[in-house]
């Protein structure tokens, strides 16, 4: 193919290369795992410690 | 584009640009017997295929010590200003538009470039293209020949080729090969 005589030289540095990238699948190869919605954080309030009853003190035995 | 210097070789102006040039080009086509493994190849000197999804880079066989394209050589990846000039190409199978960049030498009727990648492609019946140019060249089959050469042909020229002993080992549907070629190179169809 004869394209004639040279006319000019052009140095072209494209901003983006005109080469397509590898084809990406239109849908994910594996389905997204189903994630259950997190349950509301309803942790039970720590129970108030019950007021301790006074330990009955045995009366000291009289005499010895 | 702005003028920024002068070539020492021939006094040609050197310009700089950021947009690739778009030109016309014809390719030969090879593939497997089942129509897979499609590769565009130069119509002359078919040893170096244009790999899918990779920029083709010019290399010069004639001279080991110059970078292609060289002003004093014919090396480089060729593109034409007009598709008409491609009617003289040897056995074209695919016609298309090609992006050219890097070092590009513009000639009277086309370009020689350092890098290139096809942008739009279409199969052509080479005999229709020789006879009638861009008017009509839609092939109906793609003949598979020895050495994996794929030759798109219209039904009339398939029959004529067979009369001259050019019978393909296998005939594949042209529309499927056309689509597969575009998928392989991830490009759009050439609208004519």
Please, could you describe this protein's structure?
The complex is a heterodimer of chains A (64) and B (192). Chain A has 64 residues and is largely without helices or strands. Helices cover 0% and strands 11% of the residues of chain A. Chain A contains no helices and one strand. Chain A has one strand spanning 6-12. The N and C termini of chain A lie far apart (132 Å). The model of chain A has no long low-confidence stretch (mean pLDDT 65). With 192 residues, chain B is mainly beta. Chain B has one domain (20-187). Chain B is built from three helices and twelve strands, in the order ββββββββαββαβαβ. In chain B, strands 3, 4, 5, 6, 7, 8, 9, 10, 11 and 12 form a ten-stranded mixed beta sheet that branches. In chain B, a hairpin with a 6-residue loop joins strand 1 (2-6) and strand 2 (13-17). Chain B is elongated and about 55 Å long. The mean pLDDT of chain B is 90. Classes of the chains: A little secondary structure (64), B mainly beta (192). Chains A and B meet through strand 1 of A and strand 2, strand 7 and strand 8 of B.
Number of separate domains of chain B: 1
Number of helices of chain A: 0
Helix-strand topology string of chain B: EEEEEEEEHEEHEHE
Topology as H/E string of chain A? E
Largest interface: A-B, 22 and 42 residues
- Uncertain residue segments of chain A: none
Q: Decide which structural class fits the backbone of chain B.
A: mainly beta
Oligomer: heterodimer
Helix content of chain A: under 10%
> What is the helix fraction of residues of chain B, given as a range?
10-25%
What's the overall geometry of chain B? Answer: elongated
What is the terminal separation of chain B in angstroms? 30 Å
Low-pLDDT windows of residues of chain B: none
Properties at a glance:
heterodimer; A: about 60 residues; little secondary structure; about 10% strand; elongated; B: about 190 residues; mainly beta; ten-stranded mixed sheet; two-stranded antiparallel sheet; 3 helices; 12 strands
């Amino acid at each position: 193919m004869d394209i004639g005589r040279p006319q000019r030289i052009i140095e072209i540095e494209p901003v983006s290369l005109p080469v397509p990238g590898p084809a990406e699948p239109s849908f994910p190869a594996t389905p997204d795992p189903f994630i259950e919605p997190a349950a509301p954080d309803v942790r039970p309030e720590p129970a108030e410690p019950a007021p301790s009853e006074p330990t009955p003190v045995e009366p000291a035995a009289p005499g010895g | 584009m702005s003028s920024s210097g002068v070539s020492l070789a021939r006094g040609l102006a050197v310009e700089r640009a950021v947009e690739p040039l778009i030109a016309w080009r014809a390719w030969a086509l090879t593939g497997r017997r089942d129509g897979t493994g499609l590769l565009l190849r130069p119509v002359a000197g078919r040893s170096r295929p244009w790999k899918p999804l990779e920029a083709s880079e010019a290399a010069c066989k004639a001279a080991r010590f110059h970078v292609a394209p060289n002003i004093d050589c014919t090396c480089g990846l060729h593109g034409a200003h007009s598709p008409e000039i491609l009617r003289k190409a040897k056995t074209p199978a695919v016609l298309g538009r090609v992006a050219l960049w890097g070092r590009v030498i513009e000639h009277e009727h086309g370009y020689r470039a350092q890098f290139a990648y096809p942008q739009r492609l279409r199969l052509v019946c080479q005999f229709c293209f020789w006879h009638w140019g861009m008017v009509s060249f839609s092939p109906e089959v793609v003949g598979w020949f020895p050495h994996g050469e794929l030759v798109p042909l219209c039904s009339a020229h398939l029959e004529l080729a067979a009369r001259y002993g050019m019978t393909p080992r296998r005939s594949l549907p042209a529309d499927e090969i056309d689509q597969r070629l575009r998928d392989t190179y991830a490009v759009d169809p050439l609208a004519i």
